Automatic annotation (TrEMBL):
One MF term in the entry's GO annotations: pyridoxal phosphate binding
Matches recorded under Pfam families: Ala_racemase_N
InterPro entries: Ala_racemase, Ala_racemase_N, PLP-binding_barrel
GO CC annotation: cytosol
Keyword Ribonucleoprotein among record annotations: no
Name of the molecule in the record: Alanine/ornithine racemase family PLP-dependent enzyme
Domain Alanine racemase N-terminal: 8-225
Organism lineage: Bacteria, Pseudomonadati, Bacteroidota, Cytophagia, Cytophagales
Keywords: Isomerase, Pyridoxal phosphate
Gene3D superfamilies: Alanine racemase
Cofactor: pyridoxal 5'-phosphate
Amino acid sequence: MAFLELHKSRLKHNHKFLTKLFSERNIEWGVVTKLLCGNRAYIKEILNLGITEIHDSRISNLQIVKSMNPDVQTVYIKPPAKRSIQRIIQFADVSFNSEYSTIKMLSEEAVKQGKLHKIIIMIEMGDLREGVLGENVIDFYSRIFELPGIKIVGLGTNLNCLHGVMPSQDKLIQLSLYKQLIEAKFEREIPWVSGGTSVTIPLLLKNMRPMGINHFRVGEILYFGLNLFTMKTVKGMKDDIFKLHAEIIELHEKPKVPIGELAENPSGEVLEINEADYGKTSYRAIIDIGLLDISPEFLIPDDKKIEITGASSDMLVIDLGKTRRNYKVGDLISFKLRYMGALSILNSNYIEKKIVD
């Protein structure tokens, strides 16, 4: 049976790295836990780090956080659905918003529940996901800043999440200027400019972050230590907090080329054959994970000589070449994961989740 490990010591190492990075620059930050898909054991490990602010895109996950530690500030990081308003107010202290009608409903529900709900106004900075257009920000703010039960605590933006638009000094300076314009016009303080995510960390490391950006929400770099500009591990961080282990359930020497007429497989793919492989054989192992659990492109084998040749719904085939390399049926093959691969595995009920060291 395949299983996923979270290595506590490595998680603590990356958290310590980021805490030092932010504290030296007087930056507030919270941890994004949506990757963990509500896994209570893994969320507990995050809370054990001393985290005081948790960000998530699923209200059920924030409900779990509140049940484990009511004092943690919870932040809902996508525009709320109208049918979720009651639960947003109940379990999220802060939410990201870009629609006036939604904020008005949040206001009404906050008054009903006797709460003050904090919001961050999301501003469109070019990636074309959520956000108010820049030219409309002043008017948008003017319509909502006096709504009862609502407190605007920040301006924010998302970059790189949809079309891959990368953060830059110019974009982040522009975001900071919106804060200054609003504060000057309305004489109201906006504490946070939340322009920092994992993709912005490289600018921080190069001291290229505009000083106005004073709040970060961080997930991917905490879990994978990845510089999203260079796609290499940040010096001083760990890239193997998560490890997937899958068992070899068959191992035989077989032809490299399928035998018979080829058509689409269940995934809609038609194999392209390398003619140089005709007549050749290799040792092929089947391991006990498949497309139901993860897409092979998000797997990074620890054994660099392993080649992933294909997958069906519940099995994945790897090519070991002309030698078995001492592998046998029952052995475990270990993998590091890319972000979207870890997300799939953590969302799978078929993969056991463990905590080590």
